[in-house]
Input
Amino acid sequence: MEQTRQAVHLAATVCPFCGVGCGLVVEGENAFPLRYHPITQGSLSIRGWSTGELSRSPLRVKGASVRSPNGSPQPIEISQAIELIVERLQSLRDRYGSEVIGILGSARLTNEENRLIRQLAVALGTPHLDSFQRLGYLPINSVGLGSLEEASTINVLAVDLAHRFPQVFKRVSEALKRGTIVRFFDSRQVQLARMVTGHVRPLPGQELSTFIGTGKEGHGTQNSEEVVLVSSEIALQGQGVKAVEGLQGHKVMFLTDYVNQKGMIDAGVRPFPNGASAYEMLQRALTGDLKALLIFADDPFEFFPELATQAFSQIDFIVVVDSVETQGMKYAHVILPGALLAEKEGTFTNFEGRVQTLEPVTSPSAGLTERQILEGILRLLGETPEVSESEPFSVNSTSIEPDNPTEERPFIVSLDSGTFWNNHALAKASITVWREMRRPFVDFPDGYVIVNPEDARELGIRMFAPVRVESADGEVTLPANIDERAARGTLLVPMFLWEKVGKALGALQFDSSLKIPIFRPTAVKIVK
Ligand code: SF4
Output
């Protein structure tokens, strides 16, 4: 990156969105792709192009505040806010013990900041450390983008590449043009499905076993020139541990959702052996066992708005540190301003394990980065801030079996992560990305369920008509969005509804190996 920066005379940073890690330069409100960057190679997706908009977003947090007795935020000096945080944490710890404190780190922060967050958990004596941005992460050593150029076959398992990872979609499209065989194992009729050499459409939740089955039939899936491409989508449907085990010996490309998801986890921001996961911390709050929550650039409301609303109203002391406004700030007792990646120094690690160095394009809106805030808290706690290494992340083996359709419930409802970015704090803070994310709500303000057009015709379901979906455990009614994206016999629920629909149908379950909630593909029937 150093060479490139000198060539363009602008500070180089990275796109703050997905874990592919495109390198770019920012000039005012404009971002430009680096031509000679190994990943970017002169192109960005719409999210990358909008990076510059974040610095002047009206949603930037510009100063510290504390909640007054009437609930309104009152400005306070950052140093006073840090003192207040340390006092309150020490007092809660003295009264109830360290285990009432939980900490959420972030894949939007640097490696160094995440190591300090882990040090803070150790200093406070709490095992409850995690991030909602860990959801779906698998401890797989990913091969790099370059391996797509050498591959004779690329197998894409359950990833909507065009929506989720446009830069990788571009590389796979180029491989197709070169004559590489590309097989897509996914029930959805998405953009990639129309281009590939072979589209295999297993039931949702069975992509991995179907792929492994084709290997056993002699299609040579362990060929060293084959690459298997997966993402969090496989883990969020309950196939995570099976993927870690079943893909051993394959060249796997594991695409991470957030810019520094891999770096955050390598830095040790994940539950300690006896600690609660991010999701379990919210549950502990409901029972009064979690009394303080420190949130660094994360927002439980992006994923679990119902649970977070209940939990946050029970927690005695909530601190949110973020560069942009989040929903969690409405409940925070102390808010501190963070900095964007483009405003800080440090390193981050993309999905390939490539560690890239950041240099500030501009100064933080309130003058401090999360690193400086963390160092301030640690010093008041009597700690010397240090960025130490943590042990590797591994998983135990427990498997979650997918549901199969039955005569009584002939459909499988599953998660569609095409709307993954809809609730993301940075996506909301950039007008261009927000516009793109907002699109589905224009027609479907309350959400939708995607029904295959032939299924809809047979059942006499019209566009926008309410559809009642019933599982063995419950039911939910949503407007029909008739689209060939859903295969026959399947229904797709957008990611932003996964808590509501998952709870209603009994599909929201907990993967105790990965310590994450998942949406298990579930057999249902449609009642008009
Ligand atoms: S592919 Fe990912 S890293 Fe690259 S520009 Fe798009 S969102 Fe940013």
Notes: Residues 1-9 have pLDDT under 50 and may be disordered. The two ends are 57 Å apart (CA to CA).
